[in-house]
Amino acid sequence: MSDKSNNIPSVLKKDKEIDNLHLFLNLVKSNWILILIVFIISAVFTGLYVFRAKDIYKSSTSLLIQKPQGSLLTSNMIPGFSDYASDRSISNEIEILKSQTIRSLTATALIDSFKNSDSKTDFYYLINRNKKVNSEHILQDELTELLGGIVSISQKRGLDIISIDVDSPSRTEARLIANVYAAAYLNYNLEFSRKGVKNVGDYLFEIKNKKLNDLNNSEAALQDFQQRGGIVFLDDQAKSIVEQIATLEAQKNASEVELITSRRTYDALKSELEKLDPQLITYVESQISQSYVEEIQKTIANVEAERDMELTIPKDPKLIEKVKNEYDAKITALKKSLDEKVELLKTGIYAGTPEERKEITAELLRSGISIQSSNARFNSLRNLLGKYEGEFSKLPSQSIELAKLERNRRADEKLYLLLEEKYQESVINEKSQLGNVSIIDKASLPIKPFKPNRMLIMAGGCTLGLLLGFGIAFLRNFLDRTIKSPEDIESKGISMLAWIPSIENLKTKGSSLDEFFVANNPKSKESEAFKALRTRIQFSKLDGKPLQTILITSSVPSEGKTTVAVNLAGSFALSDKKVLLIDCDLRKPRVHSLFETNRFPGLSDYLFGKVNFEEILNKTKLPLMEFITSGTIPPNPSELLSSQQFKNLLDMLREKYDYVILDSPPFISVTDSEILSRIVDGEVLVALANKTPIDVFLKSFQRLYSIDPHNFLGVVLNNFNYNNVYGYYYNYYYYYNQENKNKTATNQN
């Protein structure tokens, strides 16, 4: 016996799990039409979308992003100049690829391809937009905007490779756009990497042509002087001085050009870095202006100038070589010292600089040092030139004018030749700029569409339809504030007498008598439910007071209280109890229609003294059950039910009958039920499953319970579909346990 008792908790736990399953199944069963409609709508719309959706093809181009390598030549053609395109991170390249600039360049190229193409049907997007716009400019703007939606840029994980993916309903167009997009970016990257060199080259070209014009003028002036009969030749001393001054002047002017180009490079780098980190520029400039760096550069410039001038003085070749080596050794030592100082500066700057900005910061530092170097050399040459100007002024007066003209010609010639050499180097350097992007794989013609995945979309749409249907059903159930199951009542601490199964299937056309199913179908589950209700009522009041008069009421109309009252009375009659049913609903009576008889004479007629008691009694098919109809509708039902005559009638009926069942009006609507509850032995409150609002029910219960807690017998849940909520097993389980409770109560009694 104890083993069985120990198994009860696990059985109950299993039953609870089954209950939850049946609650879900009940939700589906009660809302299956709604769920089906939502599912069908979702499936239809998904099917229409799948049917009408165009096949989309994807074509891809792969780009390799490398660190900029500069030109094929070194960048020493002008001190301080370097590739200032710098090291841009992959993220920066992706943003550039997504920019409107690249999209606009691509759009222009696509429009040109469209114009020159023989098969224009391959251009899906261009054709559709060409129908809408008349202006090529508007078409380009539209196409530029469109490319932002159909072109996707992504980095291949862990690699310096960027993929350009293009989606289009046209396979040919997808491939074309991918290749044109890559080509547009490649050209942009190349132009960007050549930008600095091109700026320098343009400046050199401009200044070279200007100096060529100066050379022509100086040669013309010299020739004119000689033709006018002046001195044609200079002596050796004058030639030497003129040669040295011309060399110095040419070098000074060249240094000035280098200084200007270095400043242009520096300004370009500074402008680029200022967009990224303005504070970093201030720090770099403070490091460049360190006095010890500037002093070393001045020393180098002075030594170089001295070397150059020393080498212009005629000497023995061996002596010239010796002098040159001595100066070069000294300059090399100074430059090594300068490099060490600059390296220290670079290390200090790198310490607090983000990785992606180190390259451009180093270029800015190098360019700044180059400006100092060019400026120091320019000043040194200018000072040295001043010394030779003194020597020049000591020449014989008759030779000075010719010397000046010759000096100008030679200076212009040397400078022009130097600029021409630098310009040619800049042209080669520009052409050798390769950028940092290369195409790995060109886009190929896609074989099959990559979307839409019709099966997946259809499955997803149907699944979404089901989920949406369930969601709406759950929401509807959540918002439904009606009583759905006995647990809704018991969870409030209210006594549950019984639930009555749904009886809609027992009704026949045009017959109200069929609602009296305890008499018509005593073996049905509904009849069994009323037998259980009868038993529980008999043992529900254990305070020793007799229970003869029972009030049946409800919260609101149409909850089936009359059906409950009639069948409860019949159930008592079937247990050999003499029962009387009274229709006390003097406002909307229904007992007479259920038994298909006249409403009067009835209760009101008797209370008004118009008829005697025997005249209002009506027989039923059950020998021990009789009923009284409501009679004539009175103007004041509440006063009539609270009259002494009615109380006297109840006292008389208690002596004649074992049970008197009173069918009363709804409790919330009028005060009739409240009046009756004060003079009966017990009350039963009827609720209709899925119809009675829980808040209205609770108000009725609270008012009824507050009158006399001992008289409240419990609640009957009417029209409850237990199969939907609990399943068939619950019918046995519920009644089995309730019968055990009743037996226990009987034994205790």
Mean pLDDT across every amino acid position: 78
Q: Which percent range fits the helix content?
A: 55-70%
- What's the name of the CATH homologous superfamily of the largest domain? P-loop containing nucleotide triphosphate hydrolases
* CATH topology title of the largest domain: Rossmann fold
Strand content: 5-15%
Q: Give the count of structural domains.
A: 4
Broad CATH class of the largest domain: Alpha Beta
Largest sheet: spatial strand order? 5-12-11-6-10-7-9-8
Largest beta-sheet characterization: 8 strands, mixed
Number of strands: 12
Q: Give the count of helical stretches.
A: 27
The name of the CATH architecture of the largest domain is 3-Layer(aba) Sandwich
Rg, Å, rounded: 55 Å
Structural class: alpha/beta
Shape: rod-shaped
- Termini Cα gap: 25 Å
Low-confidence stretches: 1-14, 70-88, 505-510, 732-739, 741-749
Describe this structure in words.
- The protein is α/β, with parallel strands linked by helices and 749 residues long.
- It has 4 domains: 2-53 and 451-479, no CATH class; 57-192, no CATH class; 203-432, no CATH class; 500-748, Rossmann fold (3-Layer(aba) Sandwich).
- The chain is built from 27 helices and 12 strands.
- The chain has helices at residues 2-30, 32-52, 90-98, 100-116, 124-132, 136-150, 171-227, 236-276, 278-288, 291-312, 317-351, 358-393, 397-431, 454-479, 486-490, 517-520, 525-538, 561-574, 591-594, 603-607, 613-616, 637-641, 644-656, 672-677, 694-707, 722-725, 728-748; strands at 57-65, 151-155, 161-168, 437-441, 496-501, 549-554, 579-583, 618-619, 625-628, 659-663, 682-688, 712-720.
- Strands 5-12-11-6-10-7-9-8 form an 8-stranded mixed sheet, sandwiched between helices.
- Strand 2 (151-155) and strand 3 (161-168) form a beta hairpin.
- The longest helix has 57 residues, at 171-227.
- The protein starts with a helix and ends with a helix.
- Mean pLDDT is 78; it is low at 1-14, 70-88, 505-510, 732-739 and 741-749.
